[in-house]
Amino acid sequence: MIYFSREYTPHDHRFLEGLSKSEYTVSFLQMEKSGGSESRPIPEGVRQVAWKRKGLSLLHVPARIRELKGVIRQEEPDVIHAGPIQLTALLTALAGFHPLVSMSWGSDMLLGARRGFGRWAARFTLARSDVFVCDCDAVRKMAVRLGMPDDRIVVFPWGVDLTHFSPRNENHLHSLLGWQDCFIVLSTRAWERLTGVDLLVEGFLRAAKVDPRLRLLLLGNGSLRSQLLNRIQEYDMIDRVYMPGQVQYADLPIYYRSADIYLSASTSDGSSVSLMEALACGCPALVSDIPGNREWVEPERHGWWFRVGDAGDLERKLLQSIAERDRLPVMGKAARKLAEERADWNQNFQELLRAYELACSFATQGVEDRYA
Q: Is the pLDDT of residue 12 over 60?
């Protein structure tokens, strides 16, 4: 099989590692030259396919299709797994390959397919996909609206390693930072508009002005770095925010276990992997009220919701979480139980293999027959 992705991210690494242990011989085709955000090498047993990568603009599409067809002739795959929808999956659809398993990365469908070229590209790709794979019901509903038959859709949360992400008392960060008696909020999202990290910081700063016990672990980096730093300095709260930068996968559980609550202000998400990591570590969540989050967090049981884009509501919910601090251990246990029931990577990954089998079973049928 060919696994065709835009870059090489931690999510790609995880899928490739799982596939390397399956019955498939796996080739990895990477669309962009940039290495992505994953520092670990490509898993053993996966062969990376070299190609010219002449660019991403519409002007280069015909050349890219010819190159992809050349790769297909060389590799002779039984199935191609491609995503995001408007990029690698579209290119594979344009090349006319079957069986094609198209995989959404969340926002490509929830935002990118709303209008214009992105909507046309999604319709075109789905109409030529044998199976569509997504991680939440919100994306499934969008695919159905765009014409994908529901019985050709396989839905599964990507899930997490429940052994790696597990509850445990972690106190050394508190001591290191001098935050022993503080209420610690954790953000692990990229510092970009889509993740709402600017609103997250604004809501935190407002709440911290009211309650001096609040502290923020702000992991990651991104294009909003200067703006966020300026805002934190304007509030004179640089001592209440710890910014360690990009944290290695092996060290992530330490941060989840050190936090009182996990916070995400994203404006668009499927089944967020970082949210599942938090739940698996027994960390209650305060998340934006969007469909993807509503599939995971039940208010007052696993955490709370706040209105999308509303820093004032976020401030109020942060102060509420401090006021109800005694309830957090019970919420943490419910969060872990939910992760065990729905977010087990080893179990959920089997659904991807089922998607490949389903796609291959349609390989001998024409597009007209499949979508008649």
A: yes
